[in-house]
Amino acid sequence: MIPFVKAHACGNDFLILEESVANGQHAALARELCSRHYGIGADGIEFVDRRADGSFFLRLFNADGSEAELSGNGTRCVAAWIAYSEGLKSTTIETHGGVRTCNVVECDDADFLIETDMGVPTIQERTVDLHGIGPVQGAVVNVGNPHFVLFTVDQDFRTYGHTWEALGAYLCTHRDFPGQTNVEFVRIISPTEIQFRIYERGVGPTHSSGTGTCAAATAAITLRNCARLLTASSIGGPQRIHWPASDQPMRLTGPARIVCTGNAVSALRGVSA
Length: 273
Ligand SMILES: N[C@@H](CCC[C@H](N)C(=O)O)C(=O)O
What we know:
- By secondary structure, this protein is α+β, with helices and mostly antiparallel strands.
- Helix content is 17%, strand content 46%.
- It has 2 domains: 2-118 and 257-264, Diaminopimelate Epimerase, Chain A, domain 1, CATH 3.10.310; 122-248, Diaminopimelate Epimerase, Chain A, domain 1 (Roll).
- It is found in: Cytoplasm.
């Protein structure tokens, strides 16, 4: 049996497993347990490695088994679990995408509001040539993991004659992004409010993304003159961004909820607690 925790942040859902149960089978476990029909169902698994000195290292595997550098929402879910189960209100977590510090702002039983230092994002405008569509203008943003951000004025986030889901799938696996990319479609509502949709690498269309929120905000602030304190909403709800200056870390504040704990039965050999 594999003990797990399920948590979500704005509907971007994660399983949290101890690194010690994985036995090197992280990718296969992610594919098995994240399956919506044959598993527990989640966008990814956060494997928590507890080090001897009390620090944490997180490895994130997407639902398709690919490993990502980090997740903003997933890291927040893990911080919520550590606060819920161990009472720690401030947690510093290392990931392959950098160190992230999470501070609990509010909590009510299993519901948390958490602010995370998301590091300093980088942005570069980029045109991608899509076969049959033509040049698509956007920006490459790195928030510890890779994103391609496009702007749209359409209510349904359609652009270049396609739905965001279809264009997201094209762009995610385009040859210009050999390691694939997350894709955000952003609408500017006002200087302090943006809306976006996320096509996540290794997952597909989903309800929210923490790094996606940061990437969308980075593009809106840098390229559309939005305010440095803004609200970014996706299908799963709003998150708050504060980016004091371009060379300073971006801060992301959003909810996380512990959904349940349980024991999974895996068909994989050698995987158990
Ligand atoms: N939803 C996450 C991002 C998860 C990683 C992403 N799929 C990738 O492969 O980079 C978030 O909240 O940041």
